[in-house]
Amino acid sequence: MKGIRQLAEHLNISIGTVSRALNGKPDVNQETRRRVLAAAEELGYVANQSGRSLRQGETKVIGLMIESSKETVENADNFFLGVTSGLQSVFARHKLDLIMLPCPSDEDPHEYLKRMVARRIVDAMIISDTQRVDRRIDFLSRAKIPFVALGRSLSASNFPWIDLDFEGVADHAVERLIALGHRRIAITAPSSEANLGYLFIDSYRRALERHDIAFDSSLVIRVRSSEEGGYQAAHELLLLEERPTAVILIYELMAIGLYRRLMESGVMPGRDLAVIGFRDAPRARFLQPSLSCFRISLYDLGAALGRMLLANMPIYREFYPGDGGNIIWPLELMAGESDAFRVGVMA
Amino acid sequence: MKGIRQLAEHLNISIGTVSRALNGKPDVNQETRRRVLAAAEELGYVANQSGRSLRQGETKVIGLMIESSKETVENADNFFLGVTSGLQSVFARHKLDLIMLPCPSDEDPHEYLKRMVARRIVDAMIISDTQRVDRRIDFLSRAKIPFVALGRSLSASNFPWIDLDFEGVADHAVERLIALGHRRIAITAPSSEANLGYLFIDSYRRALERHDIAFDSSLVIRVRSSEEGGYQAAHELLLLEERPTAVILIYELMAIGLYRRLMESGVMPGRDLAVIGFRDAPRARFLQPSLSCFRISLYDLGAALGRMLLANMPIYREFYPGDGGNIIWPLELMAGESDAFRVGVMA
DNA sequence: CCTACAGTCGTAAACGTTTACGGAGTGCGT
DNA sequence: ACGCACTCCGTAAACGTTTACGACTGTAGG
């Protein structure tokens, strides 16, 4: 089966009518439409995407750009696959397909994005891992490519994004720990330029000051957000002269390494040191003692991203009237055993 | 910047010449080519992929199909991101782009594949998670779409694939454990139809028989290949009347749950029960005691897949003369502490 | 009987490329 | 002066769709 022309010849109908029948246009006889659909099914005809895209200037494909930097590969922990399901649940309603565009680690993400967009293989883009200043956002805005970002950025004043509620998490974590009697609370921050670090630490600082606890920069541990980073964070914590009684992890995977290093020194998490993590990943779920951490439904997040994207595309806007604005995505604390003690009582 | 026509007008050159200049065709003046390339760079022109694909019937895009079933989402553990890097390292040489095609969990993988292929958004396919009988393989063969599979299958007698050396791993693990004095060795098998389970168990059985140890089907634990599955596997092991002294895990992530359940019953992995895993994932790296497991370089695997695919595409075949055949991918044992004891000596 | 109109369908142009073909110009040998 | 080879470039067709436009029916209303 080659193209629509062969299908039309096989039916003794003009190619225009066949196209209209397949695309559900109104001016075609019911009986004709039935025959066309049946023949298409039988011969396994599917429209050639190149021809269609060329004609109508759209591809019905949405791209999800993911960066395959070494750090992402080690840490992503199915984050993207999880989000993908949610996205697809929304896109399926409009016969849109989702493809993932993995940016090679040796290529500049901005250049990669430009290349993909210029080639017109997608109609719209979802970008993640936004940086504090991120040229991709300016580019997409200027080029008028519909997009939505997973993560805030300072690059443009007004663009569609969803971001996790880092500030809420840091705030909640600090309040919770203080309520449990902690006064000396450490926190980890990413070493990269990702935007989340600033918000996270700022909120932590404000929460402390609200309780008249002085901010101590030696308690902000800058390590990679990975298992190894967690190991190193624990190492640095143990070196502090006045050891903190609690630590907040910006990425819960770090808990795995952190636990390990602590136990090597005979420090028991959940008894000698309270630990709270952020953004639960499947692999941290089995820690012992179980980790208190802030969870997120990747599926729901993906669906929200999808709706917001479509709300920003003229053709689909009408279907998603309320989904235009930005979202700070709330997280829910799953209390575990890793911080279940009061300072001075058990420690 | 719209298309090649605008670029041509801007240069006062015919559109044919511009195209030839950009595509490195021989019959174009050096100076003209230089001007064209400069103008293209300046105006940010990139060829519209739809037009190009339509004309030449190829897209310069390779698709990597991944199934986002629940099990995959929980377990994949960046397996695909790792492989992706290797693939891209090969594809970059030919200006091929890789996209990932996530099959929605509610769609039949075979239908999804057909749809993607019919739409002609990719020139070739990499499929994974091959089943014992897998209609995708017949389809791709018949449709003459170049492809390569990650995983063997019985579906077609001759198609390009790479598969992990399950048999070698099971064999090696059994031999190693027997050398350490073990006689009663349990093994886990997947509950799904994936092909690997059969090979794994078969090889395990043969290795045992080689040492005159009777195959005991109660030692083959069928659970999901996940952390939860590991937990359950341990549970079942503990219920056996004559408890095994060693267990081989088909998926090392299971070790996390397994360890947990064992410790709950006071059974110490690496002292009371030897554990060997398969296909190391980053998240198992931090187990305590460290897990003995068979490693694999995802990058190298991806690169091999890429070469094999190109060797099966007429245009690129010449570049990869030796990469046509199938590969059984060897794995290397990384000895850890989880099986480092002799039966009867320490236990 | 004429007009209007709704329901169908065919025709052809257009989308942005690539490429086969042929033409214009130049240089060279006879 | 002529033919020939070579270099460079323009022309136009083709890829597979979608869709604006108009043509052709049949029917209803006047």
TrEMBL record, chains A, B:
<keyword id="KW-0238">DNA-binding</keyword>
<dbReference type="Pfam" id="PF00356">
    <property type="entry name" value="LacI"/>
</dbReference>
<feature type="domain" description="HTH lacI-type">
    <location>
        <begin position="2"/>
        <end position="56"/>
    </location>
</feature>
<dbReference type="InterPro" id="IPR010982">
    <property type="entry name" value="Lambda_DNA-bd_dom_sf"/>
</dbReference>
<dbReference type="InterPro" id="IPR028082">
    <property type="entry name" value="Peripla_BP_I"/>
</dbReference>
<dbReference type="GO" id="GO:0003677">
    <property type="term" value="F:DNA binding"/>
</dbReference>
<dbReference type="InterPro" id="IPR000843">
    <property type="entry name" value="HTH_LacI"/>
</dbReference>
<protein>
    <submittedName>
        <fullName>DNA-binding LacI/PurR family transcriptional regulator</fullName>
    </submittedName>
</protein>
<dbReference type="Pfam" id="PF13377">
    <property type="entry name" value="Peripla_BP_3"/>
</dbReference>
<dbReference type="InterPro" id="IPR046335">
    <property type="entry name" value="LacI/GalR-like_sensor"/>
</dbReference>
<keyword id="KW-0805">Transcription regulation</keyword>
<keyword id="KW-0804">Transcription</keyword>
